[in-house]
Amino acid sequence: LYFWENSSKTSSAEIDFLMNLNGMITPIEVKAGAAGHLKSLKQFLELKKIPLGIRIYDGPLHLNDSILSIPFYLISQLMRLTAIR
Predict the structure, then answer these.
(1) How many domains does the chain have?
(2) Quick one: average pLDDT of 47-52?
(3) Residue 67, CB-side half-sphere exposure with 13 Å CA sphere
(4) CB atoms within 10 A of CB 14
(5) Nearest 5°: phi and psi at 46?
(6) What does the pLDDT average to over 66-76?
(7) Cα–Cα distance list, 43 to 5, 57, 58, 73 (Å)
(8) Of 25, 32, 46, 54, which is most buried, counting CB atoms within 10 Å of its CB?
(9) Domain range spanning residue 46?
(10) Strand, helix or coil for residue 31
(11) Is 66 helix (H, G, I), strand (E, B) or coil?
(12) Which DSSP category does 55 fall into?
């Protein structure tokens, strides 16, 4: 389990966790509520050419483009949910 941050003079970005899921490095952002910006997650996906990012949050399960949003209560199913993509 790792994290990532990218700092410059004008901006900074960070990813809460980097994890090896099903043989792929996967960025994971954890958000306290159902809303929240995913700018850092999107930046990391584009920069590193990674096909899937994970948001864990207080909202419904859904896939939007390359971000899989998972509610807190399904964290134990993370490996299974990422394997079906």
Answers:
(1) 1
(2) 94
(3) 20
(4) 13
(5) -70, -45
(6) 96
(7) 11, 19, 22, 27
(8) 54
(9) 2-83
(10) coil
(11) coil
(12) E
Cα torsion 12, 13, 17, 21 to 10°: value is: -150
Identify residue 55 by its one-letter amino acid code.
Answer: R
Encoding tokens for residue 38? 């995913």
Q: Which two tokens stand for residue 66?
A: 């390359």
Q: What is the pLDDT of residue 41?
A: 94
Which of the 8 DSSP states describes residue 28? E
Amino acid in the structure at residue 81? L
CB-based contacts of 22: which residues, under 8 Å, 6+ apart?
Answer: 79, 82, 83
Between CA 22 and CA 82 the distance in angstroms is 8
Whether the Cβ atoms of residue 47 and residue 19 lie closer than 8 Å to each other:
no
Where are the alpha helices (H) located in the chain, listed in sequence order? 39-48, 78-83
CA distance linking residue 13 with residue 22, whole number of Å: 25
**65 against 74, higher pLDDT:** 74
* Residue 2 token pair: 């790792």
